[in-house]
Amino acid sequence: MQGLAAEIRAEDITAFLILQGGLLVADWGDSARKVNVASVRKSLLSALYGIPVAAGRIRLTSTLAELGIDDLPPGLTPLEQRATVRDLLMARSGIYHPAASETADMRRKRPPRGSHAPGSFWYYNNWDFNALGTIYRQATGEDIFESFARRIAGPIGMEDFSSVDGHYVTEAASQHPAYRFDLSARDLARFGQLVLEGGRWQGRPLIPADWLRESTRPYSRTDHDDLGYGYLWWTLDADRFGPDAVMASGYGGQKLAILPAKQLVVVQLIEKRDGPHRDRTKIFLDRLARILAAAP
Asked: Across the chain, which distance is largest between two alpha carbons, in Å?
């Protein structure tokens, strides 16, 4: 682990944590510092979704037309409104409308409107992810951040998060806001441990285990290394990381990895996002493979 510590210091990583079997085995940096976790937010929402889905308040087969979901002009076409909640969770809506919090790379890769039918093509699509936030608020009557605080953060004893650490990000092109989360590494590690334990915390069920199994399966091949995609989770190569390994990933090096093969939860947060190591996914996965190999 000495070499790993030197790497982390050299890369100006804000915090890096390793849990095994629920116990802290390594902690570098400031694990209490809250950082914008960027697209990790999507996996947090995925976990929340399991609760109203199990209660029958959200049906994965509901279409956007049935839910009354549209957007600013140019609005959704009849074909696009045939997309289901499940299509959005898989990033397969076929809706290529401008969206809040898109990166330049997302805009560059966005297919033309109408080029793919709903369900037929995977594209990492902020429109899908943001519209899912709107659907959650509409179906539950709950604010996303207050819901996360009450249903997940509070019960698992997050030390730093409160609902005021969430912010909606709006842009003129779309009526569906992004939902920004600021989290500390130690709080994100607790969330990872909850997922590793099948949605139970100290014996109390918080997220349905069936939902976690369903949402962390790979439904699509992606254009990112050997990563697959579930319901707002990246899935990792089983040959390299063991069965059922998943990752939440955000711009600039924000990572949460869950490796059931050795009961590992690994968190990396980086407040400074620019510079030569801005895209750190391959670096993180190589580091993660070394951690897995070294773990007893």
From this structure: 57
Q: What average pLDDT does the segment 89-116 reach?
A: 95
Residue type, 292: L
Confidence label for 276 from pLDDT (cuts 50, 70 and 90) = very low
pLDDT, tens digit, 9 for 90 and up, residues 184-205: 999 999 999 999 999 999 999 9
Residue 63 forms beta bridges with which residues? 84
Residue carrying structure tokens 């990872």 = 192
Nearest Cα residue to 70 out of 116, 114, 135? 135
Alpha-carbon span 195 to 43, nearest angstrom = 10
Give the torsion through C-alpha atoms of 90, 92, 96, 97, to 10 deg: -40
The first and second tokens of residue 50, run together, are 């399991």
Structure tokens at 290: 């070394």
Which residues are CB-neighbours of 119 under 8 A, at least 6 positions away?
83, 84, 87, 90, 92, 94
The token pair that represents 277 in the structure block: 């190591």
Q: For residue 6, what pLDDT band results from cuts at 50, 70 and 90? A: confident
Rounded to whole angstroms, what are the CA distances from 185 to 27, 189, 287? 9, 6, 17
